[in-house]
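Moderator note: this is an archived Q&A kept for reference. The question asked for a predicted structure of one protein chain; the sequence and the answer are reproduced below.
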Amino acid sequence: MSHTAHIPSHRKPRRSASKMALRAGVAGGVLSTLAVAAAAGTANAAEPVTETIELPTLTADLSAQIAQSADATAQTADSYEARAQQDAAAVKAAKQAAKDQAEAEKKAEAKKKAEAKAKAEREAARERAARDSERTQLSTSSAPSGGGSSASSASSSSSKSAPASGSVGTVISFLKAQLGDAYVMGASGPNAWDCSSLVQAAFKQVGVDLPRVSQAQSTAGTPVSLSNLQVGDILYWGGAGSAYHVGVYIGNGQYLDAANPSKGVVIQDLSGYPASGAVRVL
């Protein structure tokens, strides 16, 4: 026995041939798999894969649905716009109606006041006319009788008149009620007149419709002589049909007219401003 037999050997034990062969086979298989994978990766890299995505086809039904949706949207927009326009029109109409109502109420109030004033003036005119009639009757009954020159008799017959009564009295009463009113060209009352509007308004009180202007009024009735005037005859200055001024004879050689802006409605003597002619409508 060797003296070193009891010492374990430091040499690695030998592997068996079968184990070594097994390991070599496994390694070779692994290497083969890696080679195949590498080759496949190279091929894939050389030829990129593409994928095709098919889009949906736009059919006739889908087109119709889209068109209907667009039409519905447009109709809704138009409806909103129409409603907005209707609302704006309603607001505007309401404002205008309120304004018109206020103006109508204002006019109605003014008309009511004017009617009340006219009524008061008519009553006052009737009272004045009654007093004037009494004075005229007293003056006529107390006038001295007797002769005189033929000239004075003619003058007296042309200026003398009976107390106004009936329709003529109403005309004269209306005219006298306007004494002191202003003269304004184109005005037709109730507080301002021109010559023809005053005459027209006076005869309208008894249902006689005269033309508005003096030219037409000068031919509206029956022509009468200035020497045979009666109360209520219409006097005119200028030619018949072309008169530039009118007034109404009230008796005693006097007439009442809307004279001019400085005088207004006054009573004047024919001797101071002789008329050109006269017509009778009552």
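Archived answer notes: The radius of gyration is 62 Å.
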